[in-house]
Amino acid sequence: MASTFGKALKFSIFGESHGRAIGGVADGFPPGEKIDETELARFLARRKPGQKGTTPRRESDRIEILSGVYRGKTTGAPLALLIENRNTRSADYEALQDVPRPGHADLAALLRYGESADRRGGGHFSGRLTAPLTAFGGIAKQILERRSVFIGAHLAAAGTISDAPFDAVSPTREALLAPGEKSFPVHDDAAGTAMQKAIFSAAKAGDSLGGIVECCALGFPEGIGTPMFDRIECRLAQLLFGIPAVRGVEFGNGFGAAALSGSENNDPFVRKGKKIVTASNRHGGALGGISSGMPILFRVAFKPTPSIAAEQKSVDLRTGKTAKLCVAGRHDPCVAVRAVPVVEAAAALVLLDLLLSEKKVVF
Amino acid sequence: MASTFGKALKFSIFGESHGRAIGGVADGFPPGEKIDETELARFLARRKPGQKGTTPRRESDRIEILSGVYRGKTTGAPLALLIENRNTRSADYEALQDVPRPGHADLAALLRYGESADRRGGGHFSGRLTAPLTAFGGIAKQILERRSVFIGAHLAAAGTISDAPFDAVSPTREALLAPGEKSFPVHDDAAGTAMQKAIFSAAKAGDSLGGIVECCALGFPEGIGTPMFDRIECRLAQLLFGIPAVRGVEFGNGFGAAALSGSENNDPFVRKGKKIVTASNRHGGALGGISSGMPILFRVAFKPTPSIAAEQKSVDLRTGKTAKLCVAGRHDPCVAVRAVPVVEAAAALVLLDLLLSEKKVVF
Amino acid sequence: MASTFGKALKFSIFGESHGRAIGGVADGFPPGEKIDETELARFLARRKPGQKGTTPRRESDRIEILSGVYRGKTTGAPLALLIENRNTRSADYEALQDVPRPGHADLAALLRYGESADRRGGGHFSGRLTAPLTAFGGIAKQILERRSVFIGAHLAAAGTISDAPFDAVSPTREALLAPGEKSFPVHDDAAGTAMQKAIFSAAKAGDSLGGIVECCALGFPEGIGTPMFDRIECRLAQLLFGIPAVRGVEFGNGFGAAALSGSENNDPFVRKGKKIVTASNRHGGALGGISSGMPILFRVAFKPTPSIAAEQKSVDLRTGKTAKLCVAGRHDPCVAVRAVPVVEAAAALVLLDLLLSEKKVVF
Amino acid sequence: MASTFGKALKFSIFGESHGRAIGGVADGFPPGEKIDETELARFLARRKPGQKGTTPRRESDRIEILSGVYRGKTTGAPLALLIENRNTRSADYEALQDVPRPGHADLAALLRYGESADRRGGGHFSGRLTAPLTAFGGIAKQILERRSVFIGAHLAAAGTISDAPFDAVSPTREALLAPGEKSFPVHDDAAGTAMQKAIFSAAKAGDSLGGIVECCALGFPEGIGTPMFDRIECRLAQLLFGIPAVRGVEFGNGFGAAALSGSENNDPFVRKGKKIVTASNRHGGALGGISSGMPILFRVAFKPTPSIAAEQKSVDLRTGKTAKLCVAGRHDPCVAVRAVPVVEAAAALVLLDLLLSEKKVVF
After folding, report:
1. Shortest CA distance from D357: residue in chain A
2. Is residue B86 packed enough to be buried (19+ CB in 10 Å), middle (13-18) or exposed (0-12)?
3. Which of B89, C74, C77, D339 could pair with A124 as two cysteines, CB 3.0-4.6 Å apart?
4. What is the predicted ipTM?
C-alpha cells in the first residue's frame, strides 16, 4: 500500500477503522515550530462526527503526539501521532462481511488483499483515516499562517443547493476563514439551512447526498512549483483524490473553462504596486504549474455517502446469489460536510511541502 | 523540476520547445516486449499538428530510440528516445520575452527560474513536451494490448458542443478505438463537424476554444491499486494534470455525483458468470482506489489555448507599463483535439505502472 | 529528516531516546503473512541491552502492534508498531547539553536542528531507534524463512580478536543461525570468551571497543536486483550505513579484493545439477548488482562506542572554553555485539523489499 | 531497473556499451549556473581510456548537451546529455554470449532479463555507463567550487602498493586537486611509478589488479545531512556501490576503527576561531550522518578487472559443459585508475544534492 505522501514533508498514515489505533508519522516538519495544541484540537473538532448532518458515532479523536515535539516545539525529527479507536461497534459490520456494500471498497479490498484484510468498518479504507491526515494538516496550517499563508474552505454545494463562492481575486482573510468557524461551513447561512434540510430529508429517506468543497489559499508566494508532473495541481490532485469519496478535482474555471473561448478564459496581467498580478483569477492561482501569486482556488467533488439504510442490491459471496442489503451502522448522510477541514488539511500539507522544497523560502 | 514520474515504470522528460531536441528516458519497461515502430509512428501522428483544427507548425516528431531496445525488443534497460527540434521560428517569440502572455507560464517561469530560463516557445513548459510522453505511452499501449487491456479516448466536447459518450458498462473494443482512427477523434461525426466549424470560427476571430477529453480503459484486471495516496485516481490525476492546459479531472459520475443521492449514484453488484460486476458504472471502474474490473472511465477538462491572435492586455516587464499583445506564432485553436492521444498515453503509462507494481500480474 | 526507507516495502522510524515512545510504520508487507510474536520477541531480545558486555540500561522493548495485523496475520495495510520508553534517566544527560560528546552527533544535531532538537540521550540519533528497525526486520525474516531464505550474522571481530568466518560457498542453515542462538553471537566460543574479556577490560578502563559484524543470506533466489544505483549492494549499504556507529561496508572479498589480481579474485563458473554456480564465492553473492544464487556475504565495521567514562576533551558551548568530559550514563562498551541482530534485520528488510519489487517471485 | 538517483537533484543514466548512444538526464540543477565546457571536457578526459594503464579502446566521449542549458547557463529545466558510441567492436564479444565471463554480470543479466538483454560489451552493465555519470558530476563540481566546496581523489592503492593519504585534518586545496592534474592520479609519484609497473606486469601476464580510491571533500558546510537512512554516508555509499567493480566503502577510520578503542577513535572538540572543530578527523567529516565541517573523507575498494586474457573456467550455456575462456577485447588492467574521477563525480552529485535539499544554503 502506498499510504505515504510528500517530498520535503513526507507523511505516512496507518490504522484501521476498528483496530487498536490509527495515526501517522510525518517526516520533514521544520524544527523549532511551536504547536498550538488547543488550536489543533479546535481544527480537528471540525471533522468530528456527531454534529448536525454527520454520523452519530462519537470519536474521541484525542491526539497523542509520540515524538518530534519537545517543549511544545517541533524538533525536526519525525512527528508521530496516535489516535485511539474507541466506541467502535464491529457488530454492525459483521453482517456485511459476505455481502459487499455497493459504492464501497469491500469487494475491491477482498480482490486486492484476500481474506486476511481487516474489513471491519472499511478497515484501512475507512474515512476515519482522514483524522491523522487532518491532524498533520492542522500543524501545517499553523506553520503556514506564521508565514501569512491562510487556507480556507467551505461547502460549495450539497446535492443541488449551492453556497456563495469565494471572491477569486481578493478575498479577505476573514471571509476566507469564516465558514470554518461556523457549525455548518458555508458563507451564506440561508443556503446552509437549505442544505441541512436537504441532507436530513435524504437521511430520513434512508438516503444520502453528494457535495462540493471549494478551497482557497491566500498569500502563497508567487513562483513556487514546477512544470510537468510536479505542478501545484498535480500534487494537490494526487492528495485530494486520496480522500475517500472524492470523484473530481478542478482548478480555477475548471470544467467550466472547457466551454469558454481563450478571450473569455485568459486573465489579463495588470500592475498592482510593484507586483504584476492578474485582473481576474480564472486560472486559479497556478500558471504552468507554478504559483502566480493570486489566490489558489480549487473545487473537490464528493460522491454521496455510499452507506445508506435504503435497501440495495448486491451479491452474497458465499452463495453467489443476489442479496438485498440495508447498511446499518452510523454514517454521514453527506460526507462533504466533514470533508471541509480535510480538504483544508490536504491543501496545507501540499503547499507546505512545496515551500519546503523551494530554496527561496527560508525556514 | 520534477519531470520524472512513476514507480515500477519511471520516466523522465526533457527538452525545450526551441532547443536542440526533446526526449525522455523510461526506466522499467519489462524486458522482451516487441515494439511495433509503425504502429508507434501512427499513434504519434495523432498528436501531430498541422491537421484540421490544429497548429500549422509541422513537427517531424521522428522518434529515435537510443537505448533499451535490441533486435526490436525491449531489453529491460532504460529506454531513451530523442525527437529533434526542427522548423522552429523563435523570432515569433522574441517579442514576447518582455510582455508575458496571459494564460501562459511566461511570468511564472521568470519568477521561478529567473532570467536564465529558456522561454522561447514556452521552453520546457511547451505542449511540445507531450510528444515524448505520448511516445512512451504508445509503447505502454502496445504492452497492455498484448495483455488485452485497451485504452481509447475521444473529444467529448469542444466549447459547448458535445460528442456521444462511451458506453460506460460494456463498450466494445471497436467503439473504444474508433475515434482514434478518425481524422477528428469523435464518435458522432455530425458532432465532430459542428465542433470543427466552431473551432474554425473561433480561430478566424483570433480566438480559441476549450474542450473535454473522455478516456476509457477496457480489460484492466480487477483488484489492482491501493487505498490512500496511491489510488488509481491519485496516480492518473497526478499525471493528467501534468499535461499543459488541463484544469479538471473527474472519474465516473465525477462532479455530477455531487448533485446525486446515494441511491442514484451507487452501482448495485450483480453476478456475471463467475465474476461479480456492477450493473451500472457510475463509479468509473475504481472503488476505494482499486480497480473493480469495470471499464475505467474519466474525463479531462482542457482550457482554451491561451495563445490567441486577438488583442489582449498585459504588462511590459521593462517599462512596467500596460501593453497590448497579439500572440503571433502557430497555435492550436483547440488544444483538446491533439490532446486525445496524449490522454490515452498518460492512462497507458499509469495503468502499466500499476500492473508492474502488482505481484499478481506476471510479465 | 529522511527516516523512511524502501520501495515495495517502505518503512519509517520515529521517536527519541527519552521521548514518550519509539516505533515505526511499515508499508508493503504482503497480506496474509502469519506473525509469530514469540519468535519475534526472541529475535528482539537479542539486541536488548543488559546482557553480558552491553549496557545495564534495561529496556522493556515490549512491542505493541497497532495496525496492519488482524487475527495474527498481516492485512496488507501499513503495519505500525510502538515501543514505550521506560527507565530513562535524562538526568545523566542534562550535563552534556552544553558540552558536546566527542564522536557523538550532539554538536551536529545542534548545527542542523538548532536549540529545539531533543538531544536527551541522543534524541532521534540514539541507537535505541534500531529497536523498531529490528522489529520490522524480524517480521521480514519470518516471511523470508517461509520462502527458504535464511539470514544469519555473527560478531566477526571485537577489537583485535576475530571469530571464524562463515563458509562462503555452502554454509549449512544450522551454522548460519547458530551464533544468533548463543548469548554471545560467535561461531568460535573460545574467540567469544576472549572478545568478552577484551570488552570488559576496556569497559573497566572506562573505554570501549569497535567490532565487525559479518552477515550471510542463504537461499536468496538468483537473478534478483538491478544494475546501476539499485544494486543489491547499493540498497544494503544505504540501510546499513543508517545504523549508528557503522563506518564501513564491504561485500565478498571487499577491501581485500583491492590487493588481489583478477585471476585470484574471479570465481569460476561450474555446473551443479541443473544450475550454474561459482566454485568459490569471492564476489559475495552479487554480480553486476544482481544475485548470483550464491550466499550473499557482507561485513559491517562498527566504531567503538563513543560514550566512554574516561576523561575526554571538548568545548563548553556557553563559555567557548575547553572542557573536560566524562560520559556518565549506561552504555555498551562494544555496540557491535548488540548490532548483530540489527544487521540481520536490515538485510532481511532489503532482501524482502527486492523480492517484492521483483515480478518473478509470487507472494 | 533503477538507473535513477537523487532527491533534489535527480539523474537518470541510459545506454548500452555497444548501442547507439549513452547519456542521461539530470533534473534539479539550479538555474543560472554557468557551465565551463572546456573544464568539463578536461574532467571527462581523466576517465577516458587509452591512457597509460588503461584500455586501448578509444572512446570519443564527446558530450552533447541536448537541453537544460541556454546561452551557456543552466535553465533549471532537465539537463539531458548524449555521448555517441563509436569504435565499438562487438565481434570481440559475440563469442562470450554463450560462455559467461567469471566476475561479470553476463549470467546474472541473463537470469534477470532473459534472452532479450543486450549483452554486447556488458550492455547496460558496462563501465562505459560511468561516462554520463562523470559528466553530471563534472557539472556538479563546477557548481560546488563556485561555493568553495572542492572535491579531490587519488589512487590510494593499486594491488599491494599504496600512495600517501590525504591530510585528514587540513588538506590544502592544491594538495587536494594535485593528483587529478597528473597523468597518473597519485600524490607520491614514486608510488605511482611502482603502481604502473605492477599494473603492466599484471597485464602482461594476462591478469589485472584491484585498487583503492580515496576521496576528500573540502569546504562542505557543517550541519548538512540527516540521521537514519539519509545520512551523508548512506547517500554516498548507495551511489558509490553503483559504480561497477566497487566492493567496499568506508568513511574516516572505516574498518580500521573496528580494531580501536573509543579513546583512540574519538575526535576531541577544540575551538578554532569562532568555530568548534575536531582536533583529529577519524570520523571522516560526518557525525550522526551530518557534516561536522571537517573534510569529508572516504575510501572505495575496487576489485581487479574481471576481464582477463588468462584462461579461466566457465560453463557453455548451450552444451552445459565446462568451457575454457580467454577474454579478448580491450580492457583496463586496473579499473581503479580510471575510477578516480568517477568517484569524485559521485561525491559531487551527492553533496550537491544534499546542499540543494537543505534550506540553509541559498542557490
Report:
1. A357
2. exposed
3. C77
4. 0.95
